[in-house]
Amino acid sequence: MVRCQLYSWHPTNNKPLTTHNQQHTIMIKLRDIDKYIDKRFQRTFILKDVNLDIEEGEFITVMGPSGAGKSTLLNILGFLDDPSEGEYFFYDEPVHSLSEKRKSDYHKSHIGFVFQAYHLIDELTVYENIEMPLLYRKVKGKQRKAMVADMLDRFNIVAKKDLFPPQLSGGQQQVVGVARALIGNPKLILADEPTGNLHSEQSEEIMELFAKLNEEEGVTIIQVTHSEKMAGYGKRIINLKDGAVVEENPYVEEV
Amino acid sequence: MLKNYIKIALRNLRKYKGYSLINILGLAVGIAVCLLIFKYVSHELSYDEYHSKSERIYRITMDHPQAHIALTPSMMLPTLQKLFPEVEAGVRLFDAGRFQPLVIRNQDRVFEERKFVYADSSLFKVFDFQLISGNPNTALAKPNALVISREMARKYFGNLNPLDKSLEVNGREFEVTGVIENMRSNSHFKYDFIASMITRSGWSELSDDTWRSANFYTYIVLDEQARSAGLKQKVDSFIRENFSGNEFAASLDIIFQPLTDIHLYSEVSEDIAPQGDIRYVLAASAIAFLILLIACINYMNLATARSARRSREVGIRKVLGSEKRQLVGQFYGESAFLTVLGIALSVLLIELFMPWFNQLTGQTLAIDYTSIEFWLLLLVTGLSVTVIAGSYPALMLSSFNPSAVLKGAKISSGSPKLRKFLVVFQFAASIFLIICTIIIYRQINFIQEKELGYKQDNVLVLTAYDDVENRFNTLKSELNQITGFQGAAMTSETPTSIRAGYSPDIEGVEEGPNFIINAIRTTPGFTDAMNIDVVSGRTFTDGDFTRANRSENREYAMLVNERTAAHFGLEPEELVGRKASIGGSSGTIVGVVSDFHFASLHRPVEPLFIFPRSSFNKVLISFNTSDVRGTLEETGKVWSRMFPQYPFEYEFLDQEYNALYQQETRAGNIFTSFAVLAIFIACLGLVGLASYMVEERTREIGVRKVLGATSVQVMTLFSKDFVILILIGFILSVPAAWYMMSQWLQNFAYRVEIEWSVFLLAGLITILIAMATVSYQALRAAKLDPVDSLRSE
């Protein structure tokens, strides 16, 4: 029997949080979410009995050892995957019964993804990669140009706009990835190990950016990371661990 | 958005030039083949449709238990027109050049022509032959009137207007009363000279309207309301009433053949010209479709095999908010784009290969680029290919689960099972075609090599003009001076195809009411010249010939073949000495000759009579020499010296013989071409798949080599997979090919056996070709340096 337990910890003083700030709207509600794979006579659980509330404007870090189901959780949150059982409410709308079209609408309007492997399209230039979300939102040419130019400027990559991803370093590619995620002014950013392939200086830059977005513009950010340091940028930590529930700070073990 | 799709499509195309080229080339070849065959098929199907009355025109044929012939008595048409008002119009054709060419002359322009026909003046009321000059109502009204084609006008008159000028035909002067446009290629008969039927009145007892003998092609036009079935009933009852005593007539069935059915559906003997066969048209269409399918399968296989490369893009697009149908559209668009490129290339290929294709089919077809039909066809083909080839990849690619993809999980590039199935199918089809090709060629070879029972090689066939007939003995003695001369004879027909039919009467034998026999008339020396054995009795003497052709009290010595004896259950010697009469001539059977094939090998040897009555149409000159050219020269000299007024135009007997099998030879060539094409396309696909597989498993190869595998072992590893697939394809194709070919061979009374060696040969050829294709890739893979393969990206 596999069970996943979620505990909320404050990132710096390691004291469990017992209350949430009641002022903000609840963006995400997960109720009894299960995710399993059935193979022949075996059912393998990746997530079991997950219950979660996330408010607008939160900066959350999901942590846990490999195979704990963090990416799966993120994918479910981001409509990329469906839970096997349970309910998911996004702004009180039941995601589990949304049509494909509605889901992609949300992708276009509300959600931005940042990946560990950047996932840029190698056959498109930096400019064209950043431009892509706008094409799906049917933004007109002139406005698109302006928005992309703004993004390039903001991240200081104007000189690189006609290069192709294989010609950039890891950090530069991730910057482009973030730029692409942000250009549509999403309300929610889901970041799966965004600094996993970066060295510390680059990582810091990215996390500073996230923190700024969260504080100044109220963008909700949910990140998955292994690094305690990166976790520190967030305001709430959610632990995922299969197997037994743990009482101690799980990070003592991680080191 | 569209620009984004186009950018990606183009850049992907450029990035993977090799694969793109394979795809485009494969599609281009498949489409080109399809279009060429379509052109051929539509041409075949369109025969005779251009006549405005084509739906109401019928040819009258006679079906008799022994044969269904396309000829009718000359009395048929006038009778029908008199009795049945629903026959709106009609025309009879008498083919004059059938047995013997005509010598046509205008001053110093002299040529032998065969496409000469006599027609009733009502010709233009039935058929829409366009008169460039002349009046359709009067052109064929008077005797000695001649209408010629535009081509002939140029040939005999140059740039002058031939109207009202004269043209000499076999010494008789005709007046040119009209010029028609050259008869279209999609006509079941094509003539260059049309003379007025009335010219022939009084020429012989058979030329005026009579029920005796059947030498005319009769066509009628029914009025709008009439149905041929109704008319047939009336005709049947007419015959029953008026010919009740005649056994022959009683067993006749008068058939009304729709004009547009003649070219592809008629199975009659003595047709006006060699026709096609609907079965070949159907086979061609099926093959066209098959080849196109193979090309589409290539595309499908390659596109899905490489889909893993696009999977990331698909995942990202979904993350960015793309709906599934946008992705589907994007990938259909890409396949449409490739198809367009393929079509462009195919048009180029078509133009390049049209001359070769025309040679293959014996036609002169050309694509009319200005016709709407062509562009419509192109559009339909393009759409079909896009849909057929593009559906599977489009649907598969667009259904990737983005989370799995982006996590970096290994993507299944479609179902490898399906891909294997498709490869199997491609090769099954290719092997099928190869087997059919081999068998067709063996049959053709068999036909060409077959001992016919008479001498085929080094026999010249010339026309027995009147003067030649008169001075034949002199000709023989002159030819005797030439070294290698074996013998000469004059005959009514060449032994390759004896068609004249008679109703014989043999002493002491019950022939039965419907017994028709073929007969050939020859001079003495025929059997010697042609190496035909006399099994019993003796052959003709000069005395026989004299007795047969004197002015009074004619007596005919006759020869029959072994089959005649067998037909009546007799031994050959039992027939020698019996009295017999044939075609109004009576005499004695003096000998029995061994059977020889005097018709195409489609039919078994039938009974045959030989008797020495003149007149003759052909001269056969038989030689035994290795210096063919020299002998030919000498013969030409003798001929020109003796008959300066006749051109020395000859054919070799075996050439004539091979012409009987034109259709089969053509079929053989067509099948070979298609088999080659199919294999080519299938191998294209293999190249793509194999190189893809190599790429995929580069790491695996590296590991294997590090663990000690040799290059050969790696090569074997790769080749093994494909060999198994090909073998499965082989097993599937064998029964289908065996069945089809047995059916086809049934057409021949004399045929090859389908042997195991054929199948093995086909399978071996395919495997060798495929292996050559794959092993190049495999070898490349095997030679890779493991260090490079294992370096992590």
Walk me through what this model shows:
The complex is a heterodimer of chains A (255) and B (793). The radius of gyration of chain A is 19 Å and the shape is globular. The model of chain A is unreliable at 1-5, 18-22 and 243-255 (pLDDT under 50). With 255 residues, chain A is α/β, with parallel strands linked by helices. Chain A has helices at residues 70-77, 100-109, 126-136, 141-154, 170-182, 200-217, 228-231, 250-254, and strands spanning 7-9, 26-39, 42-55, 59-63, 85-90, 93-94, 111-115, 188-192, 220-224, 236-239. In chain A, helix 3 crosses helix 4 and helix 3 runs parallel beside helix 5. In chain A, 42% of the residues are buried. With 793 residues, chain B is α+β, with helices and mostly antiparallel strands. Chain B has 27 helices and 25 strands. In chain B, the strands form three sheets. In chain B, strands 1, 2, 3, 4, 5, 6, 7, 8, 9, 10, 11, 12 and 13 form a 13-stranded mixed beta sheet that branches. In chain B, strands 16, 17, 18, 19, 20, 21, 22 and 23 form an eight-stranded mixed beta sheet that branches. Chain B has a four-stranded antiparallel beta sheet with strand order 15-24-14-25. In chain B, helix 2 runs antiparallel to helix 9 (278-305), helix 11 crosses helix 12 (372-398) and helix 23 crosses helix 24. The two termini of chain B are 32 Å apart. Classes of the chains: A alpha/beta (255), B alpha+beta (793). Chains A and B meet through helix 1, helix 2 and helix 3 of A and helix 1, helix 10 and helix 13 of B.
